[in-house]
Amino acid sequence: MKKQMIAGGLILGLLLSGCSAKQEKPLENETIHHQIGRYCQEERRKADGPNNVAAAYGDHVISKSQVEYLQKVRAAAEQPTMVTERQVVDEIVGNIIAQEEAERLGLSATQKEIDEMIENEKSVYAQYPEAKKMVDEFCAGAGMTLEMYYDNLLEQFPGLISRGKLRRYYGEQWCEKQKLPWEEHQHDRAVLEAIENQLIAEHIVDVVYYVD
C-alpha cells in the first residue's frame, strides 16, 4: 500500500493542510519555519509506528501522524478554522482522487513542467534572502539537507501540477456551460471548490476511516 507523503516544503505543507488544532508553543526563540520543520521531522519519526493508520483509499494509506502534522502546521500559521481529523483525511483523499482523475484524462504533469517548477524554486532560493532564510530554517527544524528538501518537493510537484491542470479542465467546462469567461473566474474559490467537491463525492464512499 502507498503511504501518502507529506509536503516537506513550507508552502506546500500549508497548501495541503486545510486543518487546525490547538496551537503548541514554539521552543524559545524558535521561528515559525523552524517550528514547522520540527513538526515535519516528528511526523517522519512516527510514520512507521504501530496503529498509525487514519484511513485507507484504494492502495493509499493516510497516517494519523500525517493528519497531526497538518493540524500543527495550520495552527502554527495561526489559521483559526477548526476541523475534525476526518475532515483532514477527506482533504488528503480529495487530493489523491483529483490526481488520479487527472491521470485518467491525460493531464498528468510532464517532466518538463516538473523540472521548470523545481528550477523556479531553486531560483527563488538563490535570489531572495528572505526565501532562503525560510527554507534554511525549515530544513534545520526538519533535520533535512537542502538536497533532501528539493527531493521532497519533487515528490509533491507531479500531484500539484496535475491537480492544477484538472482544475482548469473542469473549470473551463463549467464556465462554458454557464456562458462565463474562464479568465474572470479561474481564481473564484467557490466555483473551483464546487467542481472538486462533486468529483470527490463520487469516490468518497470508497474510503475506509479509522478516525472519527
Task: Show the helix and strand layout.
Elements: E1 2-3, H1 10-17, H2 32-46, E2 53-57, E3 60-63, H3 64-76, H4 85-104, H5 111-127, H6 129-142, H7 146-178, H8 182-185, H9 189-201, E4 207-209
Parallel strand pairs: 1-3
Antiparallel strand pairs: 2-3, 2-4
Keywords for this structure?
alpha+beta, 4-stranded mixed sheet, disordered N terminus
Folded structure, characterized:
By secondary structure, the chain is an alpha+beta fold. It has one domain. It has 9 helices and 4 strands, in the order βααββαααααααβ. The chain has a 4-stranded mixed beta sheet with strand order 1-3-2-4. A hairpin with a 2-residue loop joins strand 2 (53-57) and strand 3 (60-63). Helix 1 packs across helix 3, helix 2 (32-46) runs antiparallel to helix 3 (64-76) and helix 4 packs across helix 7. The model is unreliable at 3-26 (pLDDT under 50).
- The overall pLDDT, averaged over residues, is 77
> How is the largest sheet built, in terms of strand order?
1-3-2-4
Structural class: alpha+beta
Q: Please give the largest β-sheet.
A: 4 strands, mixed
Q: Give the tally of structural domains.
A: 1
Give the low-pLDDT segments: 3-26
Based on DSSP secondary structure assignment, what is the total number of beta strands?
Answer: 4
Strand content: 5-15%
Rg over C-alpha atoms, rounded to the nearest angstrom: 18 Å
The N- to C-terminal Cα distance equals: 22 Å
DSSP helical segment count: 9
